[in-house]
């Protein structure tokens, strides 16, 4: 199974419709994919990774190996209620906490800020492409996520440290993500991330060619009325070295009210007789039009409206 790779440079070329179709399939059938040629500066990405690794070595490593979970690992069976992960969380939007994270160097703060600005642009671009593919208004996802102050954006900066007993603990236990669009800058050497697809765990290889890994969260599944998926995933602990992961969450605001986009809903709550009446008149028409008419009827509009526009 080849994980879909969406080449953003094709969006400006003759290959646009083919690329859009690939993106749609990735969102529908996989819930995860990679993006290349996304336009984020390679050097900026390398710098974020380098400074984060350095920050871990200087400020996080010692305290991680002091934790009780680490010390008791050998004396336990499988640990099912903890993760082998050392992380911190940066909020960017709607308010930033980066200056409150005392141990971060000025260099890391500035580099992270510049990098996240790029990630936000990429998330918004992606949300627009998803809307286009779903046949809904271009800014529908951004608006749905906005609440009173705009979407909420945060980044989990994590190292999954080298683990002496990877069979006894997960790097991060199985879950789906609560929010919207997740953009992951991951280690270019050490693997560990796995996604569940069609009954099997798919291993996500370390990033090459500056690719960014994307997955969609529960709110995208809900907004799209289940057309797009939030897939189960996990991080395996490993003996092979530290694994870096910088995951940016482009999520709804806390006060955003979420519901499926009405255009994507199937008709519901109608009397079957009413459906049959309409069906008799429109049996040889496209069923999508019939569904729209049933939805309009439920909304109190004339049931003829959609059909008469066609005839
Ligand atoms: O670190 C990773 O690769 C995945 C992180 C993740 O799934 C999460 O934080 O929700
Ligand atoms: Fe996740």
UniProtKB/TrEMBL annotation:
Keyword check for Amino-acid biosynthesis: no
The keyword Nucleotidyltransferase is annotated on this UniProt entry: no
One GO MF term attached to the UniProt entry: metal ion binding
Entry's EC annotation: 1.14.17.4
UniProt-recorded name of the protein: aminocyclopropanecarboxylate oxidase
Residue runs in coiled coils: 98-132
Protein family according to the UniProt entry: Belongs to the iron/ascorbate-dependent oxidoreductase family.
Pathway given in the UniProt record: Alkene biosynthesis; ethylene biosynthesis via S-adenosyl-L-methionine; ethylene from S-adenosyl-L-methionine: step 2/2
InterPro entries for this protein: DIOX_N, IPNS-like_FE2OG_OXY, IPNS-like_sf, Oxoglu/Fe-dep_dioxygenase_dom, Plant_2OG-oxidoreductases
Domain of life: Eukaryota
SUPFAM superfamilies: Clavaminate synthase-like
Location of the Fe2OG dioxygenase domain: 149-252
Enzyme class: oxidoreductase
Keywords from the UniProt entry: Coiled coil, Ethylene biosynthesis, Iron, Metal-binding, Oxidoreductase, Vitamin C
One biological process term in Gene Ontology: response to molecule of fungal origin
């Amino acid at each position: 199974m080849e994980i879909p790779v969406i080449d953003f440079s094709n969006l400006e070329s003759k290959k646009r419709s083919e690329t859009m179709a690939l993106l749609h399939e990735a969102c529908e059938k996989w819930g995860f994919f990679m993006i290349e040629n996304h336009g984020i500066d390679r050097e900026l990405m390398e710098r974020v990774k380098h400074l984060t690794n350095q920050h871990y070595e200087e400020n996080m490593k010692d305290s991680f190996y002091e934790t009780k979970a680490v010390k008791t690992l050998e004396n336990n069976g499988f640990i099912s209620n903890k993760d082998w992960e050392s992380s911190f969380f940066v909020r960017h939007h709607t308010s930033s906490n980066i200056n409150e994270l005392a141990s971060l160097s000025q260099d890391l703060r500035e580099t992270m800020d510049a990098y996240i600005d790029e990630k936000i642009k990429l998330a918004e671009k992606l949300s627009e492409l998803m809307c286009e593919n779903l046949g809904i208004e271009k800014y529908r996802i951004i608006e749905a996520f906005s609440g009173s102050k705009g979407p909420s954006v945060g980044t989990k900066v994590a190292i999954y440290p080298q683990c002496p007993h990877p069979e006894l603990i997960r790097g991060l236990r199985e879950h789906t993500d609560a929010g919207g669009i997740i953009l992951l800058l991951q280690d270019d050497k050490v693997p560990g991330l796995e996604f569940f697809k069609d009954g099997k765990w798919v291993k996500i290889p370390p990033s090459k060619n500056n690719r960014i890994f994307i997955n969609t969260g529960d709110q995208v599944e809900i907004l799209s009325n289940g057309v797009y998926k939030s897939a189960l995933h996990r991080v395996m602990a490993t003996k092979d070295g530290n694994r870096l992961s910088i995951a940016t969450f482009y999520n709804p605001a806390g006060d955003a009210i979420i519901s499926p986009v009405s255009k994507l809903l199937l008709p519901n709550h109608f009397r079957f007789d009413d459906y049959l009446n309409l069906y008799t008149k429109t049996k040889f028409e496209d069923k999508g039009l019939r569904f729209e008419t049933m939805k309009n009827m439920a909304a109190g509009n004339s049931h003829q409206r959609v059909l008469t526009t066609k005839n």
